[in-house]
Specification:
The complex is a heterodimer of chains A (about 170) and B (about 280). By secondary structure, chain A is mainly α. Chain A has 8 helices and no strands. Chain A starts with a helix and ends with a helix. The relative contact order of chain A is 0.09. With about 280 residues, chain B is an alpha+beta fold. Helices cover about 35% and strands about 25% of the residues of chain B. Chain B is built from 6 helices and 11 strands. In chain B, the strands form 2 sheets. In chain B, strands 3, 5, 6, 7, 9, 10 and 11 form a 7-stranded mixed sheet that branches. Classes of the chains: A mainly alpha (about 170), B alpha+beta (about 280).
Chain lengths: ~170, ~280
């Protein structure tokens, strides 16, 4: 059982930051019903870790991360992980053979699925959401250097173009 | 593609504007100013605010009972193991220390009981009664009442509304400040404009903190926003003993953007809450 204090804290977090989690789920899952159950899932997960997790002053950052990981997990289960990345929009053009586009998408889906949770989160935040490496480091709870290394590795793996930020 | 390269807000920055208290670092001032001036970013913020409203109107009431039930039935399987293990280890160490020490050794009295009495009297004194200035540093009560925050009541002509993060204000709008702190007895509210100029809003023209208003009541006086565009910060510092305006100014001028939460101003522990009001000409 959760203690009374933990229960109160969970409900407090829910009232305060439920909207943030809902927006995250809605953005990634693109379905209101899935987003609603996503909010509940995320908070049930959070409750079990209340004692050891970060302080209230960084609750939003923590919930942002947990909600994103949850949604990426759901998309992976649905084999629709590509949708969490803006690469999908540049995957093909009208002149391409649709079969090739589908094939490439499947290959990309498989490659994304094979990433670790941490790599997937960093890839999504940086390439999908367009966040800077500093922002990714803040949300993922990693050092800037680790994020830089991970982004470089992902770039080599997926052949994504380098940006001014990574060049510097 | 990087939204920062286009200067626009990322999703994390939108969230920082909507719920700044939950982030360790608030959104930088230049990004707030960009949000106020950029049409796509304002649309993004507007969309996020609508989703927040939708959540509060339809999702929150439906999910809250389920979560409440889950908090009552959620198992915590390892807690007893941890507790028993820690208690056993502590007891073993205590026995070893007791055996190793010479018999004449005694724990000196610390007078802790008296301190507890003082703290409990101070907490009972919450309310409109003028607070005691005996230099005590009252501990904040356990965090069950929610984090400290500021509510801003805005009056624009005949329209009245409560300001939320992301709402853009206009020169001439009048506002009142409602502090929401628990267990603190003194309050200092300061305004800081985009040029860094500070002004004491409560106690108006004072040199140090004034008594904390009753919970949910605004501080005396309404304030009007001037013509200068940009962001205007309202910073409230709640403390157990009064904070001088000079030390608050020095703290504000220290360069770092003001975060909400516990901090130290001068040598006094304070709880800070900030509202960053964005202002553009209509």
């Amino acid at each position: 059982m959760l203690s009374r204090k933990e229960g109160a804290r969970a409900l407090e977090l829910y009232s305060e930051y439920g909207g943030l989690v809902y927006r995250r789920c809605l953005r990634l899952l693109r379905d209101e019903e899935a987003a609603r159950s996503g909010v509940q899932e995320v908070f049930v997960r959070v409750m079990s870790r209340l004692e050891k997790e970060e302080k209230v002053h960084s609750a939003a950052r923590y919930l942002f991360r947990v909600a994103t990981n949850y949604c990426l997990h759901v998309l992976r289960e649905r084999k629709r992980l590509v949708e969490a990345f803006s690469w999908e929009q540049t995957a093909g053009n009208a002149r391409e053979d649709p079969a090739e586009v589908v094939e490439r998408r499947l290959a990309l889906e498989q490659a994304l699925s094979s990433l670790s949770q941490r790599e997937r989160l960093v890839a999504h935040l940086h390439f999908g959401e367009g966040m800077t490496q500093a922002e990714v480091a803040e949300i993922a709870g990693l050092s800037r250097k680790t994020v830089c290394v991970l982004v470089g590795r992902l770039r080599r793996r997926f052949g994504a173009p380098a940006t001014a930020e990574s060049d510097s | 593609m990087n939204r920062h390269q286009h200067g626009c807000l990322t999703t994390a920055e939108v969230e920082k504007l909507l719920a700044p208290n939950g982030w360790p670092e608030p959104l930088a001032l230049d990004r707030c100013e960009h949000a106020a001036a950029c049409t796509p970013c304002r649309a993004l913020l507007q969309g996020a605010r609508e989703q927040e409203r939708e959540f509060k109107d339809s999702v929150l009431p439906r999910c809250l009972p389920g979560l409440r039930a889950a908090t009552e039935s959620h198992p915590a399987p390892h807690r007893w193991a941890w507790f028993v293990g820690t208690a056993a280890a502590t007891a073993a160490v205590a026995v070893l220390i007791a055996l190793a020490l010479p018999p004449a050794w005694q724990v000196p009295s610390t007078g802790g009981g008296q301190e507890k009495t003082v703290t409990s009297q101070a907490r009972q004194g919450d309310g409109p009664v003028a607070p005691d200035t005996g230099g005590r540093q009252d501990a904040a009560p356990a965090g069950l009442k929610g984090p400290a925050s500021l509510e801003i009541w805005v009056k624009r002509g005949a329209e009245r509304f409560i300001w939320e993060q992301g709402i853009v204000l206009r020169p001439g709008d009048e506002f009142r400040v409602v502090p929401r702190f628990h267990g603190q007895r003194w309050l200092l509210v300061m305004g800081r404009d985009v040029t860094g100029r500070t002004q004491v809003l409560y106690p108006w023209g004072g040199t140090e903190s004034g008594p904390m208003p009753s919970l949910g009541r605004p501080v005396p006086s309404a304030f009007a926003l001037d013509e200068a565009p940009g962001a205007e910060e309202v910073v409230a510092l709640a403390s157990a003993t009064p904070v001088s305006v000079d030390s608050a100014r020095a703290w504000l001028a220290h360069g770092r953007a003001v975060a909400c939460g516990a901090t130290t101003v001068g040598s006094i522990d304070v709880e800070a809450a900030t509202a960053r009001l964005l202002k553009v000409a209509p």
